[in-house]
Amino acid sequence: MMNANEISAINELLATPKQITIIPHRNPDGDAMGSTLGLYHFLKQLGHQATVMAPNDFPDFLAWLPGSENTLIYEKETERCQAQLNTSDLIFTLDFNALHRTGDQMGGFLATLSKTFIMIDHHQWPDSYAKYIYSDTSMSSTCEMVYHFIHFLEKQNLINETVATCIYTGLVTDTGSFRFASTTSTTHEVAADLIKRGIKNAQIHNNLFDTSSYNRLQLLGKALQNMQLLEDYKTSYITLTQDELDAYQHKKGDTEGFVNYGLSIKGIDLTAIFIENKEEGIIKISFRSQGDFDVNQFARNYFNGGGHINAAGGKSNLSLTETVNQFVTIVKETRNENS
Hints:
Helix content is 40%, strand content 18%. By secondary structure, it is an alpha/beta fold. It has 2 domains: 4-209, inorganic pyrophosphatase (n-terminal core) (Alpha-Beta Complex); 214-338, Diaminopimelate Epimerase, Chain A, domain 1 (Roll), CATH 3.10.310. Strands 3-2-1-4-5-6 form a 6-stranded parallel beta sheet, sandwiched between helices. Strands 7-8-9-10-12-11 form a 6-stranded mixed beta sheet. The protein is globular, with a radius of gyration of 20 Å.
């Protein structure tokens, strides 16, 4: 919750037309793009010159989102983006709480700017770069927070079908279609209100989940074949090499949701997926857990990452084999310590 003074100050900032840049984290997902585009369409109605600027490309399965075609990509148009940031009056950062989450290059540039930053985010332990911080780890998604943020400003009449469509996208994706523990009665109330405002919820679900390529399904099959179990440690994990990704013409976003399959096995409460990225020279990791196993802390402690208690990400500069071996060793040690 933001206090009355902060809300008043932000309302005052937004009372006159501004140039505003809205930034999601690197490798933006449904919540990152939904929240930034939802805020973008809201701010446009207030007469602002708003721009969504993503650190790198977003996946194809989000390209249907209204306004996504206007998104600037920092990685592709660095000079133009830096000029835009230099002339911005306000910078919103959504769905992340530390500037390095935009990548070393963009994060380093953002850190040099003397601008008014406003953070809206639901991850743990926010950094202090923003003047105004709306941080709430109990929220299902940043999209749910954008919905409440607009209500704080008492401008909920501007949540039209377009804004609502973007917000609903993040609600659906970050809650695992409303099945994760972060889904609350309030989350469902927000979803109900968005449906009342005219969104085509069945079509949104279809756009997100029911349109897949043959190659993506083949890649999923390969991922499931690669799954390994550590039954004594209630753990599973999946690996995908760069060669395997290339064999199925992998596109950004194709592996979205793969990690969750490992958690669907009876008796498993911790799972991970390790994806080799030779271009960046890293192993990208996603963690999921059920119950009390804190993958946010696990990712922070061992894999240069973080996130939520039951969903987090990380990375490794070791080889895929070395990374997996490290993970298995750590799991066995930590599980034995806690047994």
